[in-house]
Amino acid sequence: MLILAGDIGGTRSRLRALDDSSSNPLVIEAVYDSAAFSSLRDIILDFSHQHHISHYDYACLGLPGPVQQRRVNLTNLPWVVDADQLQSDCSIQTLQLINDFQAAAYGIETLCDEQRCCLQTGQERPHAHRLVVGAGTGLGVSPIVFETGRYVPQASEGGHMDFAPINADQLTLLKWLWSIWPHVSYERILSGAGLETLYAFYAGLSHHNHQAWLNAETIQKRAEQNDFIAQKTIETFVEIYGAYIGNLILLWPSYGGVYIAGGIASKIRSWMQQNSFLDALHHKGRMASLVQKTPIYLVMDESLGLQGATNYARFALNASAASIAQFNKAVSNN
Among candidates 93, 92, 94, 97, which has minimal Cα distance to 81? Predict the structure, then answer.
């Protein structure tokens, strides 16, 4: 059975083809610049052509955006993905689309200790709810519930909740952001583009001239070189990140652990480990103790979403095989 797994992002798209049903399992991976392609179809066809793959038995693709009736309007790419059309065009027998952070959440079970960094020990409880959150091109969230003996990730668009300032500086920031967008979500700040926006705010750059803004990678490098504005940018980013994750914990108590994924946090690990992150996380008044008891982990593995899509596909195939076996047994008994 040949499986296609995909973690499709606004910046990069990762694909994996595997067939682990034989003694010599096939595993092929590739990473694409998403913006260099006009559609997801073109990426998959290029992948198939490059590796001489004629068809797939099952595919699971994690996509940044809400999945509605097997269609996704991607949030940070000008693509519309239709599962039925993609299934036909790319020679896929069965195709499942899921939210990208739902896919990341399916990858949590396979993390080893070296792939996660503990930011807060907390008091972990077996079979308790978990949460995956992460800033990258966008801001993703997946609550995870334990039911029927396994963890089941849920899709959400929690990154688009209203930004809530926690101090006077952030209130000034919000007023400045309102001059750009009528609705300011956390994703407007907690993302790669959000980091660039924060820097523009502290540097006094015009929000009408985005060409003058620095990219996120340059901001990170400048912060490491002790540039004051870049450091202030990342410090505020981390502070808002902590407050936001604290809010999510109040909504979804996660004594099974909060896992911070995405492409940004692991790159600014030293800032995430500073007191400002936990101080903002804990700043919840009478509910502070609830947040303090929650284990918090920083995920260092950038292939989490791809691994999660792979896990989902394997589980779906095994569940299907078990159902068929059960049906055949019932028929034979009759």
Answer: 97
